[in-house]
Structures are given as C-alpha cells and as structure tokens.
Specification:
four-stranded antiparallel beta sheet; 11 strands
Length: 191
Amino acid sequence: KDDFLKLLIAQIQNQDPTEPMTPQQLTEQLTALAQLEQTYNFVDTLNDFGEVIKNLDMTNIVSLIGKNVKTDQGVISADGSIKAGYSLPVPAELVKIQIFDRDGNLVRELKIPSVGIGEHAFEWDGRDNYGNELTGTYYFNVLAYNSEGELIDGVSTYSLGLIDGVNLKEKTVYLQGIEIPMDSILEVLTS
C-alpha cells in the first residue's frame, strides 16, 4: 500500500504539464488505493478471526476430558471399561472378532454365528486364546462373512470409553490411555 501511494505521488510530480492528470483519473487512483487499504484490513481481520477459531477449537478439545465418547477406532480394554461393537450392512453367516495387542499380535479371536444387520455390541472376557487373563487396552478388527464364505464389505467398528487426556499440539485425545485422532469421535455421550 505504501508503494502504491509513492507511485501515485511520483506520477503526479512527474506528469506531463501539457497533459495533466484529470480529476477523474486522480479519483480512480485514490479509489484503487482505498480498495487496497480495505483488502489489507480484511486480511488482518480474517487472520484475527482464525486465531479466535483456533482458541475455541482447543477449548472444545480440552472440554472432552472426563466425557464418554463413541469413536470409530477399534479399541477395547481387557477390564471392560472400554466397550466395543460393530455394525453390519447386511446379515452375516459368521463374524470373527480379532483382538490385537499394541504390537499387532493376535491375542484372541471370537467367532459369532448368524448375526443380523445393524449395530451389535460384544463383550470380551479379557482373556487370550489360551485362557490367560490379560490387562490393558487392545485393538480389535471385525471380519464378517456371508453364507458363501465371502467377506462382507462395509463393516464398521466403534468403541465407547472415557476421554482421559488431550494432546493439543497434535489435536488428538486419549481414550483411556490410547491416543486417537480427534476426528474419530462420532458422538459425545451423556452417560
């Protein structure tokens, strides 16, 4: 904007005396300068507004601590404090629920025959495939098969648990110690 003003002054000072700038041309130049000033002010206002939104976003993330949520992350706890479930788009002849430790090792596989369409919660007794009692938090995956033994597409999983921390820098939350993306939260539950 300063450069524009300097250019306008230089143009007026160095104009041809036989053909001076008309009042209309000067008005056009000043109008352009005013528009430039408004644009700069608008950009500053937008930047300030962005900071306000960022601060509100962080406040909202922090407010989740202590709240129960439903997330699309396949997380489950051995003690049952994180509940788990899945949703089927069509009925399944067989559903396999695979539970993995944090290193990706299969610790338990549950098989459930003849499951209907829709949401289904499941419970895990916290034991591995050998009957050993486990502790901590695990990941799970659900595989559903139709009557021909083919894998069914569109199966989704969910977990219900308590948010016990946040990472403001990464915009993630902790579902009972497991870091999950903020955008994986499907619902904030009242109970």
